[in-house]
Amino acid sequence: MEFKQIIEQAYQAYLENKKTVLATIVQLEGSSYRREGSQMLLREDGQMTFALSGGCIEMEVFQAAQSIFAGSPAKMMAYDGLNRLGCEGLLYILLEPLTIDQQRHQQIHQLLESRETLKLRSYFLAEDSSEGQYGTTFQSTQWPETPLSASAHKLPMKALEQFQWEIQAPFKLFLFGSGHDVAAFSQVAKSLHWEISVVLCEQSPKTKADFPAANHFYRWPELEDQEDLWDHQTAVVVMSHNFEKDAAYVQALLPQPLCYLGMIGSLKRRDKLKDYLEIRGINPGLVENIYTPAGLNIGANQPEEIALSVIAEILAVKNTKSPYSLKEMKSPFIHLLN
C-alpha cells in the first residue's frame, strides 16, 4: 500500500529531522504512466519513495521541490510530455511540504488499522508554478477533514480546484498451506505491499521463520471464530495440497465477505470439491464464487510463476477487470500503473 509506505517514510524523515515534500498528480490530460492520485515522497537529501512516471520526470519534480525545502509554500508543477520522451500527457502535480509527526502518524496509523476507507482531497490551482494555500487533507466517517501535514495549521482554501480520491484499507492476502510454494508465493506478493498472512494446520512443524515475507503467522484453529479478519479487501488462496484440509478451509470461508477465494489444483480437484460441498448442503451459488483452479492461463509452471498467475487473477477481481493483453486496447488513455 503506497500511501501507508509514504506516511511511514515521512515519519522516519521527521525523526531524522529531514524535510519532506509530497508530490501528487491531481489533474491529467492525455495518457500517463500513472493515474491521478498517484504520489511520491521527496526528502531534502535526495531520497525518493515511489515515482510518478517510469523515470521521465522524477528529477524535474525534485528540482521543483527545492523552493519548498527552502521554506516556500506549496506550488503547482505542470509537465507536458507531448514533445518529450514518455507518455504524451499533460500532468499537473501538486508539491506540498509534508510533516508527519508522532501525533499525525498515530492518527493515520489507527485509521488504517481500523480498516476504514480514507478520503483524500487535494486543493490546488492548475497553473504551472503557481503558489498558494494549497494542500491535501484526509478524513473518514469517524474523523473530520484534517490537513495531511501536521505543519499545516488550517485547511486549504475551499475556493480552489479539488481532486478527491479514496485510500482503501490495506489489501490482505491469506495463504493456507505450509509448502515451499507458499513461501515463494508470499515473496512475490510482498512487492505489492499487501499484508500477507500464512495459515498452517495445527500439526505443521513449520514456523514463522520459514515464511520471511509474511507479516502474520497463524494456525487454523486460531482463526475459526475471528470473523472480523475477513472483508472485501481480503483474498484467500488455499494451497495445502491436502484435499480434505483444503476443502474444509474452503467450506469454512465460503460465507465470509471475501474479495477472492481461490484454491490451487486441477480441474479434477475442482469437480471433487464441488461434490464435497454439495454433499454438505452448501448453496451452489456460493460454490460458483470459488476460483479453482486458481490463476490465469499464462503457462505457469514454477512456484513463482504460479504465484504471479494467481496474483494477476486476484488483481483482476479486485479491480473488476476482465484480463486481456494491452496490445488489444483501443483507448488512447493508457494507465500502466495504479
TrEMBL record:
InterPro entries assigned: MoCofactor_Util/Proc, XdhC_CoxI, XdhC_Rossmann_dom
Domain spans labelled XdhC- CoxI: 16-79
Domain XdhC Rossmann residue range list: 173-314
Signal peptide: none
Designated name of the protein: Xanthine dehydrogenase subunit A
Organism: Persicobacter diffluens
